[in-house]
Amino acid sequence: MQLWHIPVLFAGGIACGVINALAGGGSFLTLPILLWTGLPPQVANASNRVAIVLQCAAGTATYHRHRVVPWRDVPAMAATMVAGSILGAYLAAHIDEAVFRKAAAILFALMAATVFIDTKRWARADSLPRIPAYMYPISFVLGIYGGFLHAGIGTLQIAALVLLGHYDVVRGNALKFAVAFFFSLAALILFAGAGQVRWLPGIVLGLGSTIGGIVGARLVIAKGAPWVRAVVVVSAIAAIVKLLGVF
Known about the structure:
mainly alpha
């Protein structure tokens, strides 16, 4: 890691936090930054989880202070997603790098579209629903993707929790952050065991994203969303180009 990488990663982390606060999809920015600083794809994917864990911890703490985290449902949901995450992270850590590059590029192209989904338009009356049994296998599958790549997983979680689990958006987001902390931590531990985590870049990104989250929360969403989506799409394209080795 070179000295100039630190301010780039920190600034990228701030932008990631703002993007997540406004529209989601911050990993579409941070993973390309890690790739363009010279980290191999699997190492960049693994190191990105340090920032994700830090941001999820901060987000969960914020929701907890507002007493909207449905802690009753966290253990079961976290257990299913952690199980899937371990499988996904294992696959990401151990498959051939060329295969990972192609798979990640395809997933990036598919998942970039999730940034155009406006979850704030969804509404549910049940603030404390009972999660249907069919949500657990869905969560397991989402956990596999979250462990493998993570980018765009937040929108998928909210879609499942609100549209299928009948949560309101606020508590759905709170549950998303709490569960994401655990399954991202599980993936991080597995990647660390495989020797693929570069801690300093991940921590610098994490510190920046925490600050960016605070800044993003204070911005006017109506004005911020259009440029956020443009940044996410451009970043996703940059990641695809780098993963496929176009240049």
